[in-house]
Specification:
heterodimer, A: 133 residues, alpha+beta, OB fold (Dihydrolipoamide Acetyltransferase, E2P), 5-stranded mixed β-barrel, 38% strand, globular, disordered N terminus, B: 270 residues, 6 helices, 9 strands, 22% strand
């Protein structure tokens, strides 16, 4: 079953977007088939290279809160997409994140889009890729 | 407004307003700029067409590819299957099966040639009479490429970006790159090479906005034949090279080490 999963993943790698993250192999850590869309409250933002990270508290239907940590573009690309450090994403803001979950680690993900409280939707990270180039 | 001078001034102002939007648009109509010695000037900030997807989204990316097709530029083919000999291909498949966790780039090592040109971050070309300088945003890397006819240095050590010398073949800048170490991949996951790798790059500014890039990799120990890839680089007016640092918060080092340990444990358990 595990081998089948690996084969499926490899097959997927051929078809998903060729362009990889600026830095690393997406598929090693994240799962391009595990798309997630989560809404929650920003806890912290780490404006660092080669990726920025942010944490979001997401409450499920039973009121249980899970703290998700997302990874995205480096600051150079964020600024090109309209982000500004300490202004765009701030603790306490309620946002919606679209991206992909990590393959095995719980509550970790790669962010593709973030919808801000003012309705703006900004690219937060690259499309799911393989590191193929 | 009743003097000829005032009338001329208002016409000039009206013209300036009318022409401004045209001037703001990069246009294929603009001629390819040339330097004092008559060579095409490659100076500017460029990015591989693949990166347009990240910079401007799917629509702009598709439009760029369509424009290339209309202009007769070859489609970027950086994902084609490399012509590896069986043993090297087996090695590549092994790296693919491990989903790229062995990628030297993920460990923040300098990205080699030509892979560095395909990364989704811009690079600046500065063309001088006797050399061409390439400034890459990724890893803050640079290459200095003499174009004054000198040969490769005799004391060249194997290196990540290799040793480059350039020459003009008509309107095409041809760069010969040798003296590579083996800590880089050519393009995708597992595209290994030996120290005998020779890379020939051809840069042709075929319009104001585009450079046709063709790169041929020769490495008879692992490749069955020279392997050629093509891509179009696009001018990015208003862009500037920003900082990109790779070590600061690179969590891949720990992650990949953990994944490697897991895969070793799985292999032992078999």
């Amino acid at each position: 079953m595990r081998r089948l999963a690996v084969l499926l993943m490899l097959g997927l790698c051929v078809f998903v977007t060729r362009l990889a993250a600026a830095h690393h192999s997406f598929a090693a850590y994240f799962d391009g088939q595990k798309a997630v869309t989560l809404t929650g409250e920003v806890v912290s933002v780490e404006w660092t290279n080669p990726h920025f990270h942010f944490s979001v508290d997401v409450e499920d239907a039973d009121g249980v809160v899970a703290r998700w940590r997302f990874e995205g573009f480096p600051p150079n690309m964020l600024v090109r997409q309209g982000w500004r450090r300490d202004e765009t994403l701030t603790a306490g803001a309620t946002i919606t994140v679209e991206g992909w979950a990590a393959r095995s680690e719980p509550n970790a993900g790669a962010a593709r889009w973030v919808t801000l409280p003012d309705g703006r939707k900004l690219a937060a990270g690259p499309p799911a890729g393989t590191g193929g180039r | 407004m009743n003097t000829p001078r005032a009338w001329l001034a208002s016409v000039a102002a009206a013209l300036a307003v009318a022409v401004a939007p045209l001037a703001a648009q990069p246009s294929a109509e603009q001629p390819v700029p040339r330097t004092a010695n008559g060579k095409p000037d490659l100076s500017g900030i460029w990015v591989a067409t693949g990166a347009i997807l990240l910079f401007e989204g799917q629509e702009a990316f598709a439009a760029a590819r369509a424009a290339d097709a209309a202009a007769g530029r070859p489609a970027g083919n950086t994902n084609e299957t490399p012509p590896y000999k069986p043993e090297a291909e087996a090695q590549r498949q092994y790296y693919l099966s491990r989903q790229g966790i062995d990628d030297p780039m993920a460990r923040c090592l300098l990205t080699g040639v030509p892979r560095i040109n395909f990364r989704p971050l811009p690079f600046e070309i500065v063309q001088l009479p006797d050399r061409v300088i390439m400034l890459y945003e990724i890893h803050h890397a640079f290459r200095i490429i003499p174009t004054d006819g000198r040969p490769h240095p005799e004391d060249a050590e194997p290196s990540y970006l290799g040793e480059s010398v350039g020459r003009w073949d008509g309107d095409t800048l041809v760069i010969d790159v040798t003296s590579f170490n083996t800590n880089t991949w050519l393009t995708g996951v597992g595209t290994i090479h030996t120290e005998d790798l020779r890379v020939t790059e051809r840069y042709t500014r075929d319009s104001f906005d585009t450079i046709r890039y063709e790169v041929t990799m020769e490495d008879p120990a692992v490749l069955t034949r020279p392997w050629t890839l093509r891509e179009t680089f696009r001018l990015r007016p208003g862009e500037r090279i920003r900082e990109y640092e790779c070590i600061e918060s690179n969590e891949d080092l720990q992650r990949f080490e953990r994944l490697l340990q897991e895969s070793r444990a799985t292999e032992r358990a078999r």
